[in-house]
Amino acid sequence: MNQAGVSNPANSIFMSGKYCCMVMRINVDCNACCRKLRKIILNLRAIESHLIEKQECRVSVCGTFRPSDVAIKIRKKMNRRVQILEIQEFDAATTEQIDHNPMVRG
Q1: pLDDT per residue over 52-78, tens digit each?
Q2: Helix, strand or coil for residue 71?
Q3: Could you tell me which residues come within 8 angstroms of residue 77 by beta carbon, excluding any fewer than 6 positions away?
Q4: Torsion (CA) 73, 84, 45, 43 in degrees, nearest 10
């Protein structure tokens, strides 16, 4: 919260207590786009590790964040469509894995 008592929306990504691994589909068709995406991901403090698969147009990120907030932030900064393929949440207390697969694979 700032002095006026309003919470900072930029810090809302980091408010989640669960460790998440998320796989997204982003069209990264050139080296410049790949470098731009890498720079954006490195500037997000909540993301601890990432993997950019340029040929498959797939990006994997892991850390303590809200998946929707990270996807929205990347979409706004890259000006490209972001599709969440898979989310895995790990509860810190029980170390159990919770799977979320919003996409039907066939």
Answers
A1: 999 999 999 999 999 999 999 999 999
A2: helix
A3: 40
A4: -60
Given its phi and psi angles, is residue 79 left (phi above 0), alpha (psi -120 to 50 degrees) or beta?
left
Please give the structure tokens belonging to residue 23: 């796989």
pLDDT tens digit sequence for 36-51: 999 999 999 999 999 9
Whether 47 and 61 have beta carbons less than 8 Å apart is answered as yes
The radius of gyration of the chain from alpha carbons, rounded to an integer in Å, stands at 15
The answer to whether 50 and 41 have CB atoms below 8 angstroms apart is yes
Residue 29: burial class (beta carbons within 10 Å; 0-12, 13-18, 19+): exposed
